[in-house]
Amino acid sequence: MYLIHVMLLLYAAAVFADDFSVPKLVYLIEDDDKLIASNIKFNRFDEIKLEAKETVSAHAVGNAVIVIVTNKRIIAYSVYTASWRTRNIEADEEVESINAEDYSALVVTSKRFLSFNGKNGVWAETQRSKIFR
User: Is residue 117 a contact partner of residue 124, using CB atoms and an 8 Å limit?
Assistant: First the structure.
């Protein structure tokens, strides 16, 4: 009887874990002057054009979100909204790190913390304290 309880508990844990795991739903394609998101969830491709003299310096791809840093802006893509969202890089602002995991992204700059929620396609940001500079 004890073995059956343990097996049921392990099965429930596996099912519960699957409910919260995010499958791989997006890929990034860099093609000349445009960036393309291959959205597996909606079986489509969404592109955003780079501006004049804009170059990609870094990117991170999660299972359902993309975040890209260029010399002019920070760009994020959400699988769930099938859209690109941008934030301009401020004068004298340097990007320190970028991370993307599942459907969220975090960008740390010398001036701000920016997080992107890939479920609703919304950026949140806050200024850094002078203590961190």
Answer: yes
Look up the pTM and report it: 0.83
64-117 pLDDT tens trace: 999 999 999 999 999 999 999 999 999 999 999 999 999 999 999 999 999 999
Cβ(110)–Cβ(74) under 8 Å? no
Positive or negative, the Cα torsion across 95, 101, 31, 73? negative
The pLDDT of residue 83:
98
Question: Exposure pattern of 104-126 as b/e (b: 16+ CB <10 Å)?
Answer: bbebbbebbebbbbbeebeeeee
- Asked whether 63 and 73 are in contact (CB, 8 A), the reply is no
CB 44 within 8 A of CB 82: yes
Give the count of domains, the chain: 1
Residues 33-51, mean pLDDT to the nearest whole number: 98
Q: Tell me how far apart the alpha carbons of residues 22 and 25 are, in angstroms, rounded to a whole number.
A: 8
Tell me whether residue 29 is in a domain.
Answer: yes
- The reply to whether 1 falls in a domain is no
